[in-house]
Amino acid sequence: MPSSGAIPSPIRVLGIRRACHRSHTPDLQLQPRCVPGTPISCGTQEWGGKPTTQLLRWNGPISKTRQTYQHALLQKVVGPSLPVPTEREEAADPSGADEVYELAVEILHSRVRDRPQGTLVRIESYNYGFRRNLLGLRPLGLASVTGSLLIVAALLALDAAGAASINLASAVLVGIVDVLLLWLWLAVVNKRWVEEAAWAYAERLIAETQLTNASQPLEADSDGG
0.70 cut: is pTM over it? Predict the structure, then answer.
Protein backbone atom coordinates (compact mmCIF):
# COMPACT_ATOMS: atom_id res chain seq x y z
CA MET A 1 0.00 0.00 0.00
CA PRO A 2 1.40 3.38 -0.93
CA SER A 3 1.61 6.06 1.71
CA SER A 4 -0.88 8.91 1.62
CA GLY A 5 1.78 11.18 0.12
CA ALA A 6 2.87 8.82 -2.65
CA ILE A 7 1.75 8.83 -6.27
CA PRO A 8 -1.25 6.45 -6.50
CA SER A 9 -0.21 2.94 -7.57
CA PRO A 10 -2.70 2.79 -10.51
CA ILE A 11 -0.54 5.38 -12.23
CA ARG A 12 2.40 3.02 -12.14
CA VAL A 13 0.32 0.25 -13.70
CA LEU A 14 -0.21 2.41 -16.79
CA GLY A 15 3.33 1.66 -17.90
CA ILE A 16 4.32 5.30 -17.96
CA ARG A 17 7.98 4.69 -18.60
CA ARG A 18 7.26 2.47 -21.57
CA ALA A 19 4.77 4.92 -23.02
CA CYS A 20 7.17 7.83 -22.69
CA HIS A 21 10.03 5.96 -24.29
CA ARG A 22 8.07 4.96 -27.37
CA SER A 23 6.36 8.31 -27.77
CA HIS A 24 7.20 10.44 -30.78
CA THR A 25 5.52 13.65 -29.71
CA PRO A 26 7.73 16.75 -30.07
CA ASP A 27 7.87 17.51 -26.37
CA LEU A 28 9.16 14.08 -25.48
CA GLN A 29 11.89 14.74 -28.02
CA LEU A 30 12.99 17.92 -26.30
CA GLN A 31 15.87 15.82 -25.10
CA PRO A 32 18.48 16.34 -27.86
CA ARG A 33 20.03 13.39 -29.60
CA CYS A 34 23.45 12.34 -28.33
CA VAL A 35 25.94 13.15 -31.09
CA PRO A 36 29.58 12.66 -30.07
CA GLY A 37 31.78 15.63 -30.86
CA THR A 38 28.91 18.09 -31.22
CA PRO A 39 27.69 20.80 -28.83
CA ILE A 40 24.44 18.90 -28.22
CA SER A 41 24.20 17.52 -24.70
CA CYS A 42 22.51 14.23 -23.91
CA GLY A 43 19.48 15.27 -21.87
CA THR A 44 17.70 18.32 -20.55
CA GLN A 45 19.11 18.13 -17.03
CA GLU A 46 20.95 21.40 -17.56
CA TRP A 47 17.57 23.01 -18.21
CA GLY A 48 16.21 21.59 -14.98
CA GLY A 49 14.09 19.09 -16.91
CA LYS A 50 11.76 19.33 -19.87
CA PRO A 51 10.12 22.76 -20.08
CA THR A 52 6.60 21.28 -20.12
CA THR A 53 7.40 19.26 -17.01
CA GLN A 54 8.76 22.32 -15.24
CA LEU A 55 5.62 24.28 -16.08
CA LEU A 56 3.52 21.59 -14.38
CA ARG A 57 5.59 21.20 -11.23
CA TRP A 58 4.32 22.70 -8.00
CA ASN A 59 7.83 23.97 -7.29
CA GLY A 60 8.23 25.31 -10.82
CA PRO A 61 8.01 28.85 -12.22
CA ILE A 62 4.19 29.00 -11.97
CA SER A 63 2.46 30.38 -8.87
CA LYS A 64 0.54 27.87 -6.75
CA THR A 65 -2.77 29.61 -7.43
CA ARG A 66 -2.26 29.41 -11.17
CA GLN A 67 -0.90 25.86 -10.90
CA THR A 68 -4.02 24.72 -9.03
CA TYR A 69 -6.16 26.05 -11.88
CA GLN A 70 -3.84 24.62 -14.51
CA HIS A 71 -3.82 21.16 -12.92
CA ALA A 72 -7.60 21.17 -12.72
CA LEU A 73 -7.84 21.86 -16.44
CA LEU A 74 -5.22 19.25 -17.25
CA GLN A 75 -7.05 16.66 -15.15
CA LYS A 76 -10.15 17.17 -17.28
CA VAL A 77 -8.11 16.62 -20.43
CA VAL A 78 -6.34 13.41 -19.35
CA GLY A 79 -9.30 11.89 -17.57
CA PRO A 80 -9.66 10.23 -14.14
CA SER A 81 -7.43 7.24 -14.96
CA LEU A 82 -4.33 9.44 -14.69
CA PRO A 83 -4.51 11.44 -11.43
CA VAL A 84 -2.46 14.62 -11.67
CA PRO A 85 -0.17 14.80 -8.61
CA THR A 86 -1.02 17.10 -5.76
CA GLU A 87 1.66 19.27 -4.20
CA ARG A 88 2.09 16.77 -1.39
CA GLU A 89 2.35 13.82 -3.77
CA GLU A 90 4.92 15.61 -5.90
CA ALA A 91 7.05 16.41 -2.84
CA ALA A 92 6.91 12.76 -1.73
CA ASP A 93 7.84 11.33 -5.14
CA PRO A 94 9.29 13.98 -7.53
CA SER A 95 10.45 11.53 -10.18
CA GLY A 96 7.11 9.73 -10.16
CA ALA A 97 5.30 13.04 -10.48
CA ASP A 98 7.49 13.99 -13.44
CA GLU A 99 6.55 10.73 -15.15
CA VAL A 100 2.88 11.59 -14.75
CA TYR A 101 3.44 15.08 -16.11
CA GLU A 102 5.29 13.71 -19.14
CA LEU A 103 2.49 11.28 -19.97
CA ALA A 104 -0.11 13.99 -19.40
CA VAL A 105 1.76 16.21 -21.87
CA GLU A 106 1.74 13.36 -24.39
CA ILE A 107 -2.02 13.04 -24.01
CA LEU A 108 -2.52 16.80 -24.24
CA HIS A 109 -0.45 16.96 -27.41
CA SER A 110 -2.48 14.16 -28.98
CA ARG A 111 -5.65 16.11 -28.21
CA VAL A 112 -4.30 19.34 -29.68
CA ARG A 113 -2.29 18.34 -32.74
CA ASP A 114 -5.21 17.58 -35.08
CA ARG A 115 -7.38 20.52 -34.05
CA PRO A 116 -7.44 23.74 -36.12
CA GLN A 117 -6.76 25.63 -32.90
CA GLY A 118 -3.53 23.64 -32.52
CA THR A 119 -1.82 25.48 -35.35
CA LEU A 120 0.24 27.62 -32.99
CA VAL A 121 1.42 24.53 -31.12
CA ARG A 122 2.51 22.93 -34.38
CA ILE A 123 4.35 26.08 -35.43
CA GLU A 124 6.26 26.21 -32.14
CA SER A 125 7.01 22.49 -32.41
CA TYR A 126 8.42 22.88 -35.92
CA ASN A 127 10.41 25.91 -34.82
CA TYR A 128 11.97 23.93 -32.00
CA GLY A 129 12.77 21.01 -34.30
CA PHE A 130 14.34 23.34 -36.85
CA ARG A 131 16.58 24.96 -34.26
CA ARG A 132 17.57 21.67 -32.67
CA ASN A 133 18.50 20.22 -36.06
CA LEU A 134 20.57 23.28 -36.92
CA LEU A 135 22.44 22.94 -33.65
CA GLY A 136 23.21 19.34 -34.58
CA LEU A 137 24.53 20.51 -37.95
CA ARG A 138 26.62 23.29 -36.42
CA PRO A 139 29.99 21.47 -36.61
CA LEU A 140 29.38 20.61 -40.27
CA GLY A 141 28.24 24.16 -41.01
CA LEU A 142 31.30 25.68 -39.36
CA ALA A 143 33.62 23.31 -41.23
CA SER A 144 31.94 24.08 -44.58
CA VAL A 145 32.05 27.85 -44.12
CA THR A 146 35.65 27.78 -42.92
CA GLY A 147 36.64 25.63 -45.88
CA SER A 148 34.90 27.99 -48.28
CA LEU A 149 36.68 31.01 -46.77
CA LEU A 150 40.04 29.27 -47.11
CA ILE A 151 39.34 28.48 -50.77
CA VAL A 152 38.34 32.09 -51.47
CA ALA A 153 41.48 33.34 -49.73
CA ALA A 154 43.64 30.91 -51.73
CA LEU A 155 42.06 31.97 -55.04
CA LEU A 156 42.56 35.64 -54.22
CA ALA A 157 46.19 34.95 -53.38
CA LEU A 158 46.70 33.08 -56.64
CA ASP A 159 45.04 35.88 -58.57
CA ALA A 160 47.26 38.48 -56.88
CA ALA A 161 50.34 36.44 -57.76
CA GLY A 162 49.22 36.13 -61.37
CA ALA A 163 48.96 32.36 -61.13
CA ALA A 164 45.21 32.38 -61.73
CA SER A 165 42.51 34.65 -63.04
CA ILE A 166 39.26 34.89 -61.10
CA ASN A 167 36.21 37.13 -61.02
CA LEU A 168 37.13 39.42 -58.14
CA ALA A 169 33.58 40.65 -57.55
CA SER A 170 32.25 37.08 -57.28
CA ALA A 171 35.03 36.03 -54.95
CA VAL A 172 34.41 39.00 -52.65
CA LEU A 173 30.66 38.32 -52.65
CA VAL A 174 31.22 34.68 -51.70
CA GLY A 175 33.61 35.79 -48.96
CA ILE A 176 31.04 38.20 -47.51
CA VAL A 177 28.35 35.52 -47.52
CA ASP A 178 30.74 33.11 -45.81
CA VAL A 179 31.53 35.65 -43.10
CA LEU A 180 27.83 36.21 -42.46
CA LEU A 181 27.20 32.47 -42.26
CA LEU A 182 30.14 32.06 -39.91
CA TRP A 183 28.65 34.74 -37.64
CA LEU A 184 25.27 32.98 -37.68
CA TRP A 185 26.78 29.61 -36.78
CA LEU A 186 28.86 31.11 -33.97
CA ALA A 187 26.57 33.80 -32.51
CA VAL A 188 23.02 32.61 -33.21
CA VAL A 189 22.91 28.82 -33.40
CA ASN A 190 23.62 27.70 -29.83
CA LYS A 191 22.05 25.83 -26.91
CA ARG A 192 20.25 28.88 -25.57
CA TRP A 193 18.68 29.50 -28.99
CA VAL A 194 17.29 25.96 -28.91
CA GLU A 195 16.16 26.28 -25.29
CA GLU A 196 14.18 29.43 -26.10
CA ALA A 197 12.22 27.53 -28.75
CA ALA A 198 11.65 24.63 -26.35
CA TRP A 199 10.15 26.96 -23.75
CA ALA A 200 7.99 28.71 -26.36
CA TYR A 201 6.57 25.34 -27.42
CA ALA A 202 6.01 24.27 -23.81
CA GLU A 203 4.18 27.46 -22.87
CA ARG A 204 1.99 27.28 -25.97
CA LEU A 205 1.09 23.63 -25.37
CA ILE A 206 0.26 24.08 -21.68
CA ALA A 207 -1.88 27.10 -22.56
CA GLU A 208 -3.98 24.78 -24.73
CA THR A 209 -5.46 23.21 -21.59
CA GLN A 210 -7.76 26.24 -21.48
CA LEU A 211 -8.92 25.67 -25.06
CA THR A 212 -9.05 21.90 -25.34
CA ASN A 213 -12.53 20.40 -25.15
CA ALA A 214 -12.47 18.48 -21.90
CA SER A 215 -15.98 17.07 -22.23
CA GLN A 216 -14.61 13.89 -23.82
CA PRO A 217 -11.37 13.13 -21.96
CA LEU A 218 -8.88 10.90 -23.69
CA GLU A 219 -8.02 7.90 -21.56
CA ALA A 220 -4.35 7.63 -20.66
CA ASP A 221 -4.12 4.06 -21.91
CA SER A 222 -5.97 4.65 -25.20
CA ASP A 223 -2.89 3.60 -27.22
CA GLY A 224 -3.05 0.15 -25.69
CA GLY A 225 -0.03 0.77 -23.39
Answer: no
